[in-house]
User: Fold this.
Amino acid sequence: MVENRSDTFDIGGELTVHRLGFGAMRLCGPDIVGPPADEDAAREVLQRAADLGVDFVDTADSYGPGVSERLIREAGVADELVVATKAGLLRNREGDWLSHGDPDYIRNQVLVSRDRLGVDQIDLYQFHRPDPDTPFEDSVETFAELKDEGLVAHVGLSNVTVEQLETARDIVDVATVQNRYNPGDTEADRGSDRVLDACEEYGIGFVPWFPLGAGDMGDTADVLAEIADTHDATPEQVALTWHLQHSPVTLPIPGTSSVAHLEENVAATDLELTDAEIARLSE
Assistant:
């Protein structure tokens, strides 16, 4: 029987979740724009995730935009799961992602996201990406105010450096950091190693986006395939297990629009890699 057997982590010291979560970005239409072709199937994925013991779901106001947040509400799982959403990133007509950390905008978006999700308080509200046109401290201060006002329970960051994390910690209790991270990233891409080290030191949850490298693991693909053969598993399952064993604060959020793929991801929590295998994938 497939079920989420990952151990747990307390987000913000109080929201206990299984460390293998779910990323809802892929429930949207192509290129993360508009609704999916089959909304019933998307809601079924969310409901099945909850049935399997996945109790942490990540989304953002810009996914769709607003589509995945709405689907979470319609699936009837928002009250069963810890729901994390984000603000601070927009899409233009060409599909480019644009940072927008203006305090007034963030204040508006928290109300919009709350309505879409159908909740009184957002469990985890994340600053999606620092805005070069808005002082970082001003944006983070707005998130801190939203927490003080009870609109959000906890505050997270995304796409930040260690220095930005330290700055934010002087303003608000940071519950999570969400940065790109996977075993296939090059040394240049793995700048988040330092961020992960800081998260471990402070007990902050680290949420890797692109935990499976969006299907491109580069030179690491052969190593993943070799280890997968040893365990009668898929390379993707090995990558997820690496995340879970690589650090006790890591909360991988693989996304999918398929129930079968979801179950395959959750089955990775039955896998255990050797120390040598972890080391090979961590090089």
The two ends are 34 Å apart (CA to CA).
